[in-house]
Amino acid sequence: RVINFTPFNANSTAFVRWPSDHTVNGCIGADVLPDALPAGKQRPVIVNDECALVEFTYSDLVFQYVDNYCYKIVRTWKMIDWCQFDTQDPFKKGYWEHHQLIMVNDLTPPKFITGCNPVTTGQINDLDCSATLSLSASASDNCTASENLDWRYEIDFFKDNSVNKTGSSNSVTGNFPYGTHKITWFVTDECGNETSCSSNFTLYDRKAPTPVCYDGLVTVPMQSTGTVEIYAKSFNICSGCDNGSFDNCTPGDQLKFSYSSNVNNVSRIFSCSDIANGVIDTIEIQMWVTDLAGNQDFCTANLILQDNQNVCPDALPDRYDIVGKITDNKGQKLPSVEVILEVDRSTESKYTTTDDHGVYFYPQMEEGRIYKISPQSDSDPKAGLSTLDLILIQQHLLGIKLLDTPEKMIASDANNSGSISAADIFDLRRLILGAIEHLPKNKSWRFIPTDEMFIDQGNPFPFVEHIFLTDFFDHSVQNNFKGIKVGDINQSYTPLVQENMVSNRSLEKINLVVNNDGFAKEQIVYATFEADRALLTAGLQLTIKFNAEILSLDEIISGLIHMDAQNYYINNKQEGLITISWNDGNGIQLKEGDVLFTIAFKALNNGVLSDALSLNSQITDAEIYPVINGNLIENRLDIEFRNGLVTDEQFHLFQNMPNPFTHETTIKYYVPEQSTATLNIFDMNGKKMLSRSQESKGYDEFYLSIESDKLTPGIYMYTLEAGKNKSSKRMIMIK
Fold this sequence. Notes:
Elements (H helix, E strand, L loop, with lengths): L15 E2 L4 E3 L20 E2 L7 E13 L2 E13 L13 E10 L6 E4 L4 E3 L8 E7 L1 E3 L9 E7 L8 E3 L3 E7 L1 E10 L5 E10 L13 E3 L7 E5 L24 E3 L8 E5 L8 E11 L5 E11 L12 E10 L9 E6 L5 E5 L5 E8 L4 E6 L10 H12 L7 H7 L9 H12 L11 E5 L17 E3 L11 E5 L11 H9 L3 E7 L2 E2 L4 E8 L3 E12 L4 E8 L9 E5 L4 E14 L4 E9 L3 E2 H4 E4 L6 E6 L2 E2 L2 E8 L9 E2 L10 E20 L4 E18 H4 L4 E9 L2 E9 L2
Parallel strand pairs: 2-6, 8-15, 16-21, 22-29, 30-42
Antiparallel strand pairs: 1-3, 4-5, 5-6, 7-10, 9-13, 11-12, 11-14, 14-15, 17-19, 18-20, 20-21, 22-25, 23-24, 23-26, 26-28, 27-29, 30-32, 31-38, 32-37, 33-36, 33-39, 33-40, 34-37, 35-36, 40-41, 40-42, 43-44, 44-45, 44-46, 46-47
Helix pairs in contact: 1-3
């Protein structure tokens, strides 16, 4: 029997129906897979495969932005009939190809997630009435990943329909002026679909104006009416010039002035009824200043209303002046001290301040009344204070050297307890370190009558801080006070700042020595502060600044001077400011090279200590207090970096890396000439734990392994000797 059949032919529809072209409205991913396409367009359909063994597969070639479509896919179908296919001649028999075109078009634009809501801020820069603000937006798309979306923005300052700033990002950080502005975000997907949204961002001015009052404005009632109208703006000192009331955003000529928070209360009428004695009276007023944003503040001033035309009836009792002067222990005048005058032991009080000569003055006070005069001031709490004062208090408490005047004892009572204790040292040290700005339980000044006689010179507590006047037998008597600066035991305070600066510059300088070590990122760096000479010292204080972009503070480690949390304060980690104050009333003897204390940092970047560390008096003055012939001396304190950076002509030992280490570490070094380099490792008791030698020239290194050298966790000192050169450093092994 003979059976005839026609060989399989993919080019004939009798055997194969190839998938036709198709247009997809969707994404290029799952939407274009064969199973996602309509029937007849998915894959080849085998109509007749009798006496054939057929397989097929496909591959895609993708083009973007073709013929007004987002994507053009050329899908090539390859089919083989293994009954005919000849591997020696694969393109003649049993192999067919078919090209199917799939056009992809995504018409859906992205959708905003954030960035379309209004933004407000009140953090206005006082200098230029602007603020730094960060704005951002986000969006999602049905086909395009978020990170592949294309962004741009336009900013319209003050919403005046003009574009003032553009950019190609989904975020912007800038310095923007006070007011309301508009930002429009534009986002485009990979198929060119774009959408946009706009939002307002507003920078509010929430800072009140600074009122500056003219105190002592003099006026008289009109002879015709017995009254006078005074506008609130009349009390604006130097109206129209640069010295008057001012605001960070509102021009001076647009500020509003009133007698109260009601901006319409712009004037007041004063009459004879405001002059109690019918001759002259002082009337206290409030001048309110309001800016364009509605922020308000006020200052207090005095209007002197006098009847020099005899318009008002007189009612004047006998009156005298109360006058006095306030100076410090050294007789220096103290300006700007508030002096309270209480009348007849009631709540009726008057206030004035001392002038530039330290003089206070209450004119024309009535005879026959009881007056209590009490100065007070909490100004310049830190002025005149140093760790030297803490040493003097400590020596008094230890009985080493007692304070010899009642004034010094009063100055020592920082917590106002009526006694002297270690708690006073604690509060004063916090003030010196910058941890607090004011004493928590005391004012910065105490005042006693100048002629005060202390019955017990060794215990002045409690003490009198006022003067009572019960009769004006001699109204010319000077009611003087002596000001005592709390904490200033050695009486170094002077109101002349320039003199303080000159005095400080004239002091002798002593250095703290720090090895100028190099370091690498992630390394623990130890800045060891050593004495540059032998001396007996009872205390020191300083401000250390480190570059917070290079170093991160890890810990402060005591050396010969004991340091705990009371002795230092991290003023600002971001700015890298550390203040230190230490004292020992008995003093400690230092030798050259003694380690006073160590500061451990973690390196955030590569660098050297001299570029990242400095000593200054930014917060706490840098001073040290040697004891010479039994006397405390005040010296300036500075930093000296030694063992500078290595050059091609210098011997240098680098810090081991990593440090601390667990299993292994590498010690690198540089020797300028061919020599035998010997590495010795000692524990902290001075016992040699390891010694190695090798011939070296130029850069070289020693490799240490805990398995081979059997070092145990702890702190070690390693020393490298090469010829006449020698250098040492510390390293730490941990578990």
